[in-house]
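User: Let's play a game. I give you a shape written as tokens, and you guess the letters that built it. Ready? Here's round one.
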């Protein structure tokens, strides 16, 4: 069974910040720092399946694989496994959701969307309004207050390195060329570093609900934005808080791991999700989460079988084959999105023999145009030569095999899996 483990987000536990811990959201680094393993951590749900699902639509094997000729003359696929050999720039920030500035599609409610109706103050920034960098600095200790840099600072000694706020925001491909998304218009004398533009994505509603493991860290400084009044001062400088911040409630949930992340089409699957802030209580109100599955066709909400603050067990009803995303939603607050793949099940219902002809019936065999390729063969007393496959379609494979006898085992190694049966 495959699982998603975010290796790149392992807790640093640096308290107090800066730099901030890396338990929530995406590790504060550049796409180029993500190694193959880090891509796989989020895309663990059967990377070949993710790609091979594209075969049904627009891609052929040779679009991604070179044809290799083996010493015995048979052909096979050349396999490149390192993601970044093919995905050379951040693929995420060229997606339609990113272009539409719906960053929360993947980043969850750690950010707001400019068009989701969240409120942004219209008054001029005051002494307690956080600055994009900082409003006060202690010149002897270099400790900053009153802005994001009070806690979010780079750290080149971390592995991978933690980058500065301008660096993380300025390396998102073509997206970063659109300065006006994040900066004030200077042509009319406006301030380039206008916090109100940042608030398009970092509004009070998201900022006041970011806290790692709220239930355990409420009252402690350094684990987020609303643990202790030290955190409030990080953003608000002179403002000393004695109560909860306005709009704090359903602290944003975060997913670390989904197991299994790869599921079989048409089969109900019990999935375990681990992470944090799946449940919390603020001002006597209890907030709890449900699980949401998204794909191009829409969304499906599922109530967990069991839930506590760090684990959800949920039964996902049968889905069609395809690529999906999974997130946890708590009173409108969305976690990060985790990709999951639902693959067609390869099932042999029967294998029969008539003279030398073996007929295998079932489902999920997909297309036979790639028979003879590595791992995609019908075994009957050894691999069957391409020439002896008479027909191969999604539900029926016909093989001419003169040595076959009743009782022999037949194995279909199809694109999405394999199954065996005995010739009856
Ligand atoms: C923090 C988690 C995370 C990491 C790390 C990650 N991805 Fe993704 N990736 C996602 C999510 C979420 C999506 C969107 C899935 C959806 O639309 O349902 C996605 C989508 C994609 C897509 C499809 C884009 C499209 O056009 O729809 C590609 C390609 C991709 N990732 C490749 C990579 C590569 C290569 C790496 C390593 C450099 C990587 N990913 C690292 C989470 C991640
Ligand atoms: C969109 C790109 C793409 C297409 C199209 C594609 N593949 Fe792949 N395939 C990959 C990638 C990437 C891997 C390596 C996955 C990994 O390392 O996890 C892979 C892996 C494989 C593997 C090795 C499986 C393993 O993990 O050992 C086989 C066999 C294979 N592909 C066969 C095919 C055949 C046959 C076709 C055509 C029906 C095909 N592929 C189409 C991208 C593709
Ligand atoms: C041999 C080249 C190749 C390699 C290696 C490769 N990919 Fe891809 N991948 C493609 C192509 C081609 C597509 C389809 C076009 C696109 O969306 O960019 C694709 C699409 C994807 C998608 C989107 C699938 C969809 O439904 O649109 C994801 C996610 C993805 N790749 C992740 C990965 C990850 C993670 C790795 C490494 C483990 C990886 N890829 C390695 C070529 C490759
Ligand atoms: C399809 C999913 C997806 C969408 C949509 C998306 N991101 Fe990302 N983002 C990722 C993934 C995965 C990473 C890490 C790998 C990478 O950089 O590609 C990332 C990394 C980042 C980082 C650096 C990491 C950090 O914590 O500082 C920033 C900044 C960022 N994205 C901003 C944005 C902005 C702004 C938008 C909307 C305009 C957006 N993203 C939309 C998936 C997405
Ligand atoms: C008092 C310290 C402090 C200040 C000031 C601060 N943050 Fe944070 N922030 C944190 C901590 C701690 C986390 C949780 C990090 C973790 O565990 O991943 C966090 C997490 C976040 C996250 C969630 C995603 C991620 O990368 O972890 C966003 C988005 C964020 N902060 C934005 C901001 C913005 C925008 C500002 C300035 C307006 C700001 N922060 C100021 C301490 C601070
Ligand atoms: C996705 C958001 C985003 C985009 C797009 C963006 N920036 Fe920035 N920029 C930031 C952030 C965040 C900072 C850090 C602010 C701070 O520390 O006060 C920053 C800082 C700056 C600074 C201050 C100097 C520095 O590097 O610290 C300048 C100048 C700047 N940006 C110019 C630009 C220009 C020019 C563009 C367009 C080509 C652009 N930015 C696009 C987010 C963005
Ligand atoms: C278009 C949306 C958008 C705008 C505008 C924007 N950011 Fe961000 N910001 C993001 C996203 C997305 C992340 C990554 C959240 C995550 O880690 O999942 C992020 C993360 C952050 C973080 C947390 C540290 C980190 O790198 O994750 C800080 C601090 C931050 N932004 C500051 C700023 C400042 C200052 C501005 C204005 C100059 C700004 N942002 C403008 C989308 C935006
Ligand atoms: C990550 C930065 C950040 C942190 C940390 C933070 N806030 Fe805020 N807070 C904001 C922003 C941004 C606003 C909007 C004010 C503005 O733009 O002028 C705001 C607004 C407020 C307001 C004014 C309410 C309104 O809607 O006008 C109060 C009161 C407040 N915060 C209290 C707190 C308290 C109490 C804490 C600590 C428990 C806290 N804040 C922590 C960023 C933060």
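Assistant: Ready! My guess for every position:
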């Amino acid at each position: 069974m495959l699982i998603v483990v975010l290796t790149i987000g392992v807790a640093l536990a640096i308290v107090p910040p800066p730099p901030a811990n890396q338990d929530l959201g995406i590790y504060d680094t550049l796409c180029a720092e993500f190694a193959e393993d880090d891509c796989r951590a989020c895309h663990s749900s059967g990377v070949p399946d993710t790609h091979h699902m594209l075969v049904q639509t627009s891609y052929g094997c040779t679009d991604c694989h070179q044809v290799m000729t083996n010493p015995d003359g048979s052909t096979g696929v050349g396999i490149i496994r390192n993601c970044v050999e093919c995905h050379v720039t951040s693929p995420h920030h060229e997606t339609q959701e990113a272009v539409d500035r719906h960053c929360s599609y993947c980043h969850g409610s750690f950010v707001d969307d400019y068009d989701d109706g969240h409120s942004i103050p219209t008054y001029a920034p005051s002494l307690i309004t956080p600055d994009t960098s900082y409003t006060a600095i202690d010149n002897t200790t270099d400790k900053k207050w009153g802005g994001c840099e009070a806690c979010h600072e780079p750290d080149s000694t971390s592995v991978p390195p933690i980058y500065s706020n301008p660096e993380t925001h300025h390396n998102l491909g073509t997206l970063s060329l659109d300065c006006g998304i994040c900066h004030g218009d200077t042509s009319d004398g406006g301030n380039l570093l206008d916090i109100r533009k940042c608030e398009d994505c970092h509004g009070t509603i998201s900022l006041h609900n970011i806290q790692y493991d709220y239930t355990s860290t409420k009252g402690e400084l350094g684990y987020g934005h609303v643990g202790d009044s030290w955190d409030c001062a990080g953003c608000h400088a002179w403002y000393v808080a004695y109560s909860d911040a306005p709009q704090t409630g359903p602290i944003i949930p975060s997913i670390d791991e989904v197991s299994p992340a790869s599921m079989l089409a048409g089969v109900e699957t019990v999935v375990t999700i681990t992470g944090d802030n799946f449940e919390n209580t603020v001002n006597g109100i209890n907030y709890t989460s449900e699980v949401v599955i998204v794909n191009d066709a829409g969304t499906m909400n599922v109530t967990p079988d069991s839930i506590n603050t760090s684990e959800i067990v949920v039964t996902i009803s049968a889905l069609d084959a395809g690529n999906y995303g999974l997130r946890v939603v708590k009173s409108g607050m969305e976690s990060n999105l985790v990709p999951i793949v639902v693959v067609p099940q390869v099932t042999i219902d029967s294998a029969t023999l008539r003279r030398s002809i073996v007929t295998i019936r079932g489902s999920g065999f997909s297309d036979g145009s790639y028979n003879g390729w590595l791992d995609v063969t019908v075994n009957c007393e050894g691999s069957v030569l391409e020439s002896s496959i008479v027909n191969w379609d999604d539900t029926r494979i016909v093989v001419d095999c003169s040595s076959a006898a009743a009782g022999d085992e037949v194995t279909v190694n199809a694109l999405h899996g394999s199954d065996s049966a005995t010739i009856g």
